[in-house]
Amino acid sequence: MNIGTVTINSKLALAPMAGVSDQAFRIICRELGCGYTVTEMISAKALCYQDKKTRRIMALAPDEHPAAIQLFGSDVVCMEEAAAKIMELEQPDVIDINMGCPVPKVANSGDGSALMKDPDKAGRIVEAVKRGCGIPVTVKTRKGWDMGHINAVEFCQVLESAGADAVTIHGRTKTQMYAGKADWDIIRAVKEALSIPVIANGDIFAPEDAAHILRYTGADMAMVGRGAFGDPWIFPRAIAAIEGREIPPRPPLAERCRVAQRQFRLAAEQKEKTLAEIRLLEEALVGLESSENEDDLNDVRRMLTEAGVIKKTAAERKKQPKSQRQSAPMRFNAADGTEIAVGKNALQNERLTLSARGEDIWLHAKDMPGSHVIIRAEGREVSDDTLLTAARLAAFYSKARGVAVPVDYTLRKFVKKPSGAPAGFVNYTRQKTLIITVSEAEIRKINQIK
After folding, report:
1. Splitting the chain (450 residues) into consecutive groups of 10 residues, what average pLDDT does each group show?
2. How far is 79 from 71, CA to CA, in rounded Å?
3. How do 428-436 and 407-414 pair as beta strands?
4. Do residues 360 and 346 touch, judged by C-beta distance below 8 A?
């Protein structure tokens, strides 16, 4: 396939994915058969303001060709300047313009997928970027803004007339984000309407999907996005599927661990992960190299996720109980009628939210920052028995999270900040220290509270 004057001897590309397709991951994917890579998207404005992080994100590996740097923005002048700046700093083969990002903070600023609502401006941006860089320019976009505004064919015709050398189509609308099923029919319609190359994107999660999307749409190349998450081996397996050969299995677990270790080292060299994270990841993977058990790998992944080294996927977050995804306090009424709310995620929440009515009391374990029990006082005086009950509950939850008891608690009663009070104003109207020890009998009793 030719994108302008650039020849790409492959049917497979790696999609630009913020926080995923960094240089380390792109190197691994290319080594495994990906023929064309695109950087994470960079902001035209940030580049013009010489942001250091943007400079690092757009850095290409020495032998990373053919490759593209993806640029996003909606200011025509700024986009032209940013394109020229890219050519001063790097030597990409192509500049790709993001006109498909559905993330609200991007689209709400008029960038990304918002440009689908203004085809004329999108065309001017393509012309400006071509003036600024002097190399082939492509655009990655979507099916449309929403199901009532599906304009991919007409939009891409405007882009082609403006000088775009190729387009990539993701078969979902902006409002769909990544939900539902990608519409491959719209990709085929765009391919039939244009004379420039069309790259198909969306729902390529298996090697067979890559071969299927190329046959179904007639597209010139398949761009793999989320299907490569944790599985860069999709590329050699997809090549086999496209060529009609038997699809090989993924390599043994030990080999995958060694490739992962190499990626971590590459990332460390680019200062994209801390050395502490690298050591933790490597220690976990070394222990797996002699194992062939997929459950072992999943256990390590869960451990690293809980440690905050790697992020949970959207699918993993959905599988979590709702009580683990967001604060779900346990509520009950004390003997004096006061409602007590115990936050199950107390250790993760260091912020106090005052009640909309009356006053709140915040019970805080001083040796555990962020641990708290909120008592909804509703303006009434709270008895010591209620305070002790709440303190015992807090101590129990602390113990359940591995914190030793007895615990030294400080009780503070807050009032709302008066209008006109200076920033940081806090008024403590009552304060005492409670030394609480939770007995086994009390724990059994607490366990019965619903």
Report:
1. 95 92 93 96 89 87 94 94 94 96 90 95 96 96 92 97 97 90 95 97 94 96 92 95 94 82 79 59 62 64 57 55 44 46 37 29 42 45 52 49 38 44 41 40 48
2. 8
3. antiparallel
4. no
Q: In terms of DSSP bridges, do strands 137-144 and 360-365 run parallel, antiparallel, or are they unpaired?
A: unpaired
C-alpha span between 24 and 365 (Å, rounded): 43
**What distance in Å separates the CA atoms of residue 110 and residue 227, rounded to the nearest whole number?**
28
How far apart CA 232 and CA 26 sit, in angstroms, is 9
Contact 133, 86 (CB under 8 A): yes
DSSP 90-123: ---SEEEEEE----HHHHTTT-GGGGGG-HHHHH
Among the listed residues 101, 133, 156, 257, the single catalytic one is: 101
CA distances from 207 to 108, 146, 304, 359 (A): 35, 29, 28, 59
Residue whose entry in the numeric block shows the structure tokens 């990332």: 267
**Residue 305 and residue 208: Cα distance in Å, rounded?**
30
Task: Return the H-helix or E-strand segment holding 192.
Answer: helix 184-193
Residue 193 CB partners (closer than 8 Å, separation 6+)? 153, 156, 157
Annotation marks residue 78 as catalytic: no
Instruction: Supply the Cα-derived Rg of the chain in whole angstroms.
Output: 28
Three-class DSSP category at 33: coil
Query: From start to end of 2-135, where are the E strands?
Result: 2-3, 6-7, 12-14, 36-38, 42-43, 67-72, 94-99
Yes or no: say if 375 and 411 are a contact pair by the CB < 8 Å rule: no
How is residue 413 written in tokens? 């009663």
Give me 264's structure tokens: 């971590």
Q: Phi and psi of 221, rounded to 5°? A: -155, 150
* Residue in the structure block whose two tokens are 């069309």: 198
Alpha-carbon distance of 36 to 69, in angstroms, equals 11
d(CA 404, CA 437): 10
DSSP readout, 263-332? HHHHHHHTTSS-HHHHHHHHHHHHTTTT---HHHHHHHHHHHHHTTSSPPPHHHHHHS-HHHHS---EEE
CB-based contact 252:48 (threshold 8 Å) = no
